[in-house]
Amino acid sequence: MTEKNAELREIYEFGRKLGQGSFGVVYEATHIETQTNWAIKEVCKPAAGSSKVKMLGHEINILKQVNHAHIIHLKEVYDTPRTTYLVTELCAGGELKQLLLRKKFFTEDETRHIISTLADAVVYLHKRDIVHRDLKLENILVKSPNEGDNDRIHIKVTDFGLSVQTGGVGIENIMTEACGTLIYMAPEMMSGRGYSHWCDMWSIGVVMYMLLCGEPPFLSKTKTNLLEEIINKDVTFTQSIWATVSDAAKNILTCLLRVDPAYRMSANQLLENPWITGDTNVPAIPSNVLDMMRNQLEEEESKEDGRWRTCPSPPLRTQLTSSLRSPVALGETTASTHPPHPPSRYSLSV
Known about the structure:
Elements: E1 3-4, E2 12-21, E3 24-31, E4 37-44, H1 51-65, E5 74-79, E6 83-89, E7 94-95, H2 96-103, H3 108-127, E8 130-131, E9 140-142, E10 155-157, E11 164-165, H4 187-191, H5 198-213, H6 223-232, H7 247-256, H8 267-272, H9 274-277, H10 287-303
C-alpha cells in the first residue's frame, strides 16, 4: 500500500457516484491499466486539528493494519494539497440497511450468516485492540447487488473514522467519549463511567435484532425517551414476526443486549454459540408465511410516520448532562469526555 501525490484521474476512470455524506463523496472507478473496479472516497481536507482530520487519520491508520475477509480492503491512498482519496474494494450491493429496507426483514438463516461473519470480523479487530465504536447497518456493506436473493450474503465492515486502538484491556485504556449513532449506542457509552470493546457487542445485538424484525429493539418518539428506554428497559419480542424466530436466536439477543457489559456476550462466545455453529435446529418457516409477514409490515409502515426508516441517523456528538431528561442534540461536534453518571439501575463492571 502506498501514499502518492498524483493526478488520480490519470490512473482511474471515475464512474457513477455511489454515495455522499458529510465526510466526502464515494465514486465507482475503474483502474485504467488493469480494468479492475474499485470505490474511491474523495475527502476534501478540513482545517488542521479538526475532528474530521482526526477521524480520517484514524480510518487510514486502522485500514492499513487490517486484512480480513469481512473488513473493507484499502488498496491505496492518494494525497493532494486539498484532497485525500481512499481507494477501496468495491461493494456494489450497497449498505446492508438499504437491503433490509427492500426485504423488510431477513430470515433466520440469512441473519445467522450475516451475524457470524460480522462477529468474525469483530473478533479479529478486538484481538488487535481495535474498537469500532460505530457498528450499524449503514457501516456494513454488501459485496454483490444480487446477494439479497440467497442465504450467503457477503458483507464488509467499513467506516473506521470513530474507531480507536486502545492498547490493551487494562483500566488505563477505558474510554469515556460518547460517540457513534444513537440507536446502536451501548448504555455504558452514555454513562460517563467508562466503556471498552464491549460496546461493539451491544451494537451487534441491535443489528441482529433489526435484521430479524426490521425495527430497532428500542424506539421512542424523542431522543431523551430513547436514552431512558435503552438504560431502563429489557429487550422484548412482542411483534408478530418473532413467532417465526427460534428461542436460540432470542437468547443470543438477550445476551448481547444486556445493560451491564460484564454480563454481555463476547464476540468469541457469539461465534462459538450453537445457534451460529449450526448445532441447533432452526425450524424452516414456509415462504408463504414470510411473505405474509412482509405484507403485514408494509401495511403497518404505510400507516405510521416518523419511523427510523425515514429518519437520518446522524452520530451523537454532544455532551450528556447530569440528567437524561435534558435535550440531546445529534450534531457534528465532539462529545464531552465527562458525561454524567447513569441511573442507579446501571452499574458498570470493568
